[in-house]
């Protein structure tokens, strides 16, 4: 656990024991602004480009108060050293910020002493004896002001990172809100900001508001030159959860974790009858240092003194930049990201200036490209030259130069690719495959892949780099290219797109077969049920064992590795028969398939039944077997002596009947209600031959018969067992 987290938790724990305070948590009050420049060795920079001060620097601080400002402020500057050594009287300076005759006040010009460590600025209401009182307060408690200066500077830097995060999220939301789920994690990683992943699971239109909510993000210590240690994972979660409690200030540590409570405590301890000190975070913008406050200033006793801090006085510390192992290469002539991990302060501040990528050319000399730090892309992005040198082949060595404040900055050396001859070809044997594998020039130099089909405009296609010089291209819809197609692979500016003609993928011929015979027989010798005589040869009882014979076509020879699929008109369910389950290989040209449809396809299957041969993953055409029908189980038919009286049909699964009649025309038929759950059914008296005519639920267009003569008067009629197709069930 880092020292910063210890401070946060200690302060949070202390305040959890106190009553909830009504102090506003965020620094969102606009305070005054100061104009600050720093000059070193003849070079003058605005405060936004100065990461550290150095002994001998000349600092000029001027007021940016408006013309109609009614408050009369005093600006006091104080240099501080270590906490146990009070500053010298010579380290204090003051300027009256009141306008005289409409003229702006003179700026305060300071020179950084040799052993100073901090420069703090106080803005105080002008009163009698204000300057001596402020100087004595600082000299009396140097340690408190040093600690406050340290925490204010860190909080200001964290504020800059959070502001940069907000700016990047807003820009992405305005330009392409649908990209937020992809861009937001990159921005957060670039600036070391922890975001609530739940925001990215929301609908697109709600993601931006969630990500911009200060309660959903927390700035972590970056582990580089601008902060000590690292705060991640459970530590950040704990600190953030503590900050969200009423006693914890309802977000004092959110969105950026720093010892804000400690600052408030220090300033409260420095309160006197005349002055109370309030912190002001500095937000630099060019040479303007805008101050933001977390509490309104008071002009009544005790009057408010705003305290701000300028960069610490210390040796220069260049930002961390390191090569990423396995990172994607950059390409000369494309705005591609350099494979570097970069300190988040490079994105959040203007300290890094004049960043340039100097590319060494083979013929001598260098090509200088400006670099832009883009948190939304996660790195440094080189500019695109107006014209690339002719005949340059990579990879080329390049180095990063620039300045970090006043000091030269030298980043690591990187390799940058070039398009070269821009030659692409399909890998042998893969030209007609899907996806298509292409090799040739550096994949990092591809700016897009398009399908060319005049007179239509080019259409982008899906591609992916799978190696330094290998990509895969997927043409959509996959597998439906009847004709050759042309794709163009575009590179950097000045590189002519490479066109490739791709043939349709070769497709194996489906295995061809015919069904030369089929038959069915009862699955069991069950004499309880009255047989239904199926008059149509195409009907296949679901409860019977079905056998059919398949013969090869087009010279195909069976090997025993075949599969036969059997199913109804829908895609599912499908029964798959193999030599170990349902298939018998008679000879290399003949297979016999056997199955019980009700068992293989389920009790709900009915309708057109079909089969097909599958060989080596390729399926042949479906071949019709007939119509699968489910039969009711009729146990008895009883009829009174009077022919005009109704008979009673008893049995199970009577919902599988559609209607029962005494004649083939179905005059006076008894229709069976849909889904009929009963076990008895009133039906017409059979005709003179004792026959009844029935239509089945599964094939109502077909007429079948029941021989009711032998079934009358007995609830347990005994009949001959159902037999092969020419006996029993077939009439």
Care to give the gist of this entry?
With 731 residues, this protein is α+β, with helices and mostly antiparallel strands. The chain has 5 domains: 29-153 and 270-309, no CATH class; 321-417, Immunoglobulin-like, CATH 2.60.40; 424-502; 513-629, Immunoglobulin-like; 633-711, no CATH class. The strands form 10 sheets. Strands 1, 2, 3, 4, 5, 6, 7, 10, 11 and 12 form a 10-stranded mixed beta sheet that branches. The chain has a 6-stranded mixed beta sheet with strand order 14-20-19-16-17-18, with no helix packed on it. Strands 31, 33, 34, 37, 38 and 39 form a 6-stranded mixed beta sheet that branches.
3D architecture notes:
38% of the residues are buried. The chain has five domains: 29-153 and 270-309, no CATH class; 321-417, Immunoglobulin-like, CATH 2.60.40; 424-502; 513-629, Sandwich (Immunoglobulin-like), CATH 2.60.40; 633-711, no CATH class. 15% of the residues lie in helices and 36% in strands. By secondary structure, it is of the alpha+beta class. The protein is built from nine helices and 46 strands. The radius of gyration is 43 Å and the shape is elongated. α1 runs parallel beside α6, α3 packs antiparallel against α4 and α3 packs antiparallel against α7. The model is unreliable at 1-25, 223-254 and 712-728 (pLDDT under 50). A hairpin with a 2-residue loop joins β45 (691-696) and β46 (699-707).
């Amino acid at each position: 656990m880092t020292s910063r987290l210890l401070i946060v938790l200690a302060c949070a724990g202390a305040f959890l024991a106190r009553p909830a305070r009504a102090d506003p948590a965020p620094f969102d009050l606009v305070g005054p602004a100061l104009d600050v420049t720093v000059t070193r060795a003849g070079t003058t920079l605005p405060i936004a480009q100065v990461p550290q001060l150095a002994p001998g620097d000349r600092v000029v601080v001027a007021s940016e108060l408006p013309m109609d400002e009614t408050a009369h402020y005093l600006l006091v500057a104080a240099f501080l050293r270590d906490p146990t050594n009070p500053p010298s009287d010579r380290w204090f300076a003051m300027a009256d910020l009141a306008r005289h005759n409409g003229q702006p006040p003179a700026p305060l010009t300071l020179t950084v002493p040799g052993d100073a460590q901090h420069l703090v600025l106080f803005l105080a209401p002008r009163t009698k004896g204000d300057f001596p009182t402020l100087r004595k307060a600082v000299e009396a408690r140097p340690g408190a002001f040093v600690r406050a200066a340290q925490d204010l500077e860190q909080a200001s830097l964290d504020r800059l990172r959070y502001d940069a995060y907000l700016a990047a999220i807003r820009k992405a939301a305005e330009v392409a809100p649908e990209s937020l789920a992809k861009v937001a994690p990159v921005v957060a990683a670039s600036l070391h900001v922890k975001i609530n992943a739940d925001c990215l699971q929301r609908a697109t239109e709600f993601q931006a508001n969630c990500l911009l909510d200060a309660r959903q993000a927390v700035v972590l210590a970056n582990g580089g030159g601008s902060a000590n240690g690292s705060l991640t994972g459970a530590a950040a979660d704990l600190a953030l959860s503590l900050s969200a409690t009423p006693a914890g200030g309802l977000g004092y540590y959110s969105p950026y974790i720093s010892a804000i409570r400690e600052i408030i405590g220090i300033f409260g301890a420095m309160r006197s009858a005349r002055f109370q000190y309030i912190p002001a975070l500095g937000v630099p913008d060019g040479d303007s240092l805008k101050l933001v406050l977390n509490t309104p200033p008071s002009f009544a006793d005790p009057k408010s003194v705003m305290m701000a801090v300028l960069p610490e006085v210390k040796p220069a510390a260049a930002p961390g930049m390191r090569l990423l192992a396995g990172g994607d290469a950059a390409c000369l002539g494309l705005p591609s990201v350099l494979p570097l991990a970069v300190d988040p302060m490079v994105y959040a501040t203007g300290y890094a200036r004049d960043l340039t990528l100097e590319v060494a050319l083979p013929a001598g000399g260098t090509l200088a490209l400006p670099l832009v730090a883009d948190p939304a892309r996660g790195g440094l992005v080189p500019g695109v030259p107006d014209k690339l040198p002719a005949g340059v082949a990579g990879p080329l060595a390049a180095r990063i130069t620039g300045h970090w404040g006043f000091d030269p900055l030298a980043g690591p050396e990187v390799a940058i690719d070039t398009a070269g001859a821009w030659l692409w070809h399909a890998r042998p044997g893969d030209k007609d495959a899907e996806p298509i594998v292409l090799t040739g020039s550096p994949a990092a130099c591809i700016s897009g892949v398009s399908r060319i089909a005049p007179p239509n405009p080019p259409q982008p296609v899906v591609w992916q780099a799978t190696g330094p010089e290998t990509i895969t291209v997927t043409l959509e819809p996959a597998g439906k290219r009847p004709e050759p197609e042309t794709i163009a692979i575009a590179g950097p500016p000045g590189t002519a797109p490479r066109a490739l003609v791709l043939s349709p993928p070769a497709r194996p011929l489906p295995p061809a077969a015919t069904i030369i015979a089929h038959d069915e027989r009862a699955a069991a010798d069950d004499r309880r049920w009255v047989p239904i005589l199926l008059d149509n040869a195409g009907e296949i009882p679901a409860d019977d064992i079905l056998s059919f014979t398949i013969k090869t076509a087009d010279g195909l020879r069976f090997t025993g590795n075949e599969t036969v699929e059997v199913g109804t008109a829908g895609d599912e369910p499908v029964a798959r028969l193999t030599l170990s389950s349902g298939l018998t290989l008679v000879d290399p040209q003949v297979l016999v398939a056997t199955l019980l449809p009700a068992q293989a396809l389920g009790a709900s299957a009915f309708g057109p039944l079909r089969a097909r041969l599958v060989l080596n993953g390729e399926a042949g055409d479906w071949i019709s077997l007939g119509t699968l029908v489910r039969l009711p189980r009729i146990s008895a038919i009883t009829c009174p002596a009077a022919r005009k009286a109704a008979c009673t049909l008893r049995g199970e699964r009577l919902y599988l009947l559609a209607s029962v009649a005494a004649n083939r025309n179905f005059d006076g038929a008894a229709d069976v209600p849909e889904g009929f759950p009963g076990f008895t059914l009133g039906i017409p008296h059979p005709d003179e031959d004792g026959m009844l005519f029935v239509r089945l639920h599964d094939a109502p267009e077909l007429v079948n018969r029941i021989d009711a003569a032998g079934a009358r008067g007995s609830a347990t009629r005994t009949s001959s067992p159902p037999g092969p197709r020419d006996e029993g069930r077939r009439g």
